[in-house]
Structures are given as C-alpha cells and as structure tokens.
C-alpha cells in the first residue's frame, strides 16, 4: 500500500513535468508494469485527479490548468505532513531510498511558497496608499490593512477593537472578514460581526486593534454584488429611490466618464444635455455627489428631493449673505 501511494505521487509528478508521457514510459520510470500503470490511472480518476489519455501514442496529460504546484496546503495539513518522519521512524528501514530527501524538498517548497505569499502581501499593502484622518493624536495610528487582507485570504476570524463614531465609543468584536471595498479614498471591510450576529460594514481607519484568531469561517452563500445592489457608495438603506436628473450640456461628457458603483440609464438629449436615471437605496451619498455639479445638475424626480435641494441652497445663501 505504501509503495503504491509513492508510485501514485510519482505518476502525478511525471505527467505534470512531461505532458503526453506514455504508459510505457510511466511503467519504466516507476519500475512497474504497464498493467499496474493503467490501474493506477483509474485510481487517480477515482480521486478526481483530471488526467486524460489523448489517444494512441499521445500519452497522458492533465485536463485544463490542474497541477500539484504550488502546494495549496492549510496550516493543519502542513503540520500533519511535517510530522511524517516521527510517525514513520519505527519503519524507517523499510522506506525506499530517497524518501527523506523527497520529504525535505516538499516541505522546502511549502515554506518557500508561504514566505513568497507573505512577501507579496506585504508589498501589495505597502503599495496601497490611502488617506489618513484629518485629526490624529501624537502617536499617529496603526494601519491594520495587512492583517485584515491576510485574514480574509486565509479565512481566519479577527478579534478587533472598533471605534463606533455615532456612539463615540470603542468595543471588542469578533469579525469574519469577507471583502475589502475601496470607497472615496477609504477602505471598508464587509464581514460577519459575531457580536451583532449580522453582516456589517466597517471603516478600516476606525480599527484600534486587530488580531488573527485560529478560528476559521466560510462565506457560505454571501454575495457581495447582491449585498451592495443599488448602494451608491458604501451607505446602505432599505428604500428604492428612483432619481431622474438633467445635466447641462457643458458637463454631460464629464458625467459620462464618472466611475460609479451602480449603473445608471443615460439618455442624451437633442440640446446636448443628459438625462440621468438611477435607483439607489439611500439618498445621502447620492445627494452629496450631485451637489458638486451645482446649477449644472437639476433634479427632476422625485419632486420631494427637488424641495430638499432647494432648502439646502436657501441655507447656503443665508450663510453667505
């Protein structure tokens, strides 16, 4: 059984290193019969290893981009594999020559890949340059972006201390970090808050501490696209507000270039203006965005928000008078 397991692993490596290898060659390299090779291929098929025979004299190859490298091990799998020498120590004399060196090479690949992933993640984190809060104490503030990205990739729960601005207080929370979302020069974390028992959105700059836990999570059927549907930026609501706005011809082409998180309906008008229609689930961020265009943007519908904008303009005028 032990010898066959080693042979199966060698067959996988041989097919990966030489696509199109024949059964005869596999038998020679594995020092066995072609009949055993055919049986081994059937066993690999049963283990869902996608090996295909491309016909007479064309040999075996993997289907699609399947490969055994890099080693996509979990930490538990790596630990279990590293314990093999101590487990097999009592039968070491029965192991084939080269087993120890093969094991060392496999573990070396795993450690190299792990180190490489850490380096890449650190480089990516260093490259991302976001804004900082306008007010900071003398000690500045730590950035937990690296830890959060690492936890999201490895699907580890994080234990955090989070500052809630609306209540002006800090609280400890265990969060399953699902996705990082950039919005308006900020990063937000969308994940399952175990304290609240619900999916929540957290602003990265409001984390005061982040620690990775050994506990892992599964995103299940969570769909980010559905979760953020009709959300103008990051603030979600439960309404469905259909805005209809006319943009003046002088800025219509600029509005068309806007990179938005929701898809509006754009209808060019004969006079060069642009009719902009969009449904959002919360109005505040949309109204703030619209305000930057001043009198070049006119809300047509809903009429209630025409009145909201008029009152806002009256307050501005009174302030500057």
TrEMBL record:
Residues 240-315 form the WCX domain. Residues 7-52 form the Helix-turn-helix type domain. It holds the Pfam family WCX. Gene3D superfamilies: Winged helix-like DNA-binding domain superfamily/Winged helix DNA-binding domain (1.10.10.10). The lineage of its organism: Bacteria, Bacillati, Bacillota, Bacilli, Bacillales. Residues 145-211 form the WYL domain. This is Transcriptional regulator. It comes from Paenibacillus paeoniae. PANTHER family: PROTEIN PAFC, PTHR34580. InterPro entries: CBASS_pafABC_assoc_protein (IPR051534), HTH_11 (IPR013196), PafC-like (IPR028349), WCX_dom (IPR057727), WH-like_DNA-bd_sf (IPR036388), WH_DNA-bd_sf (IPR036390), WYL_dom (IPR026881).
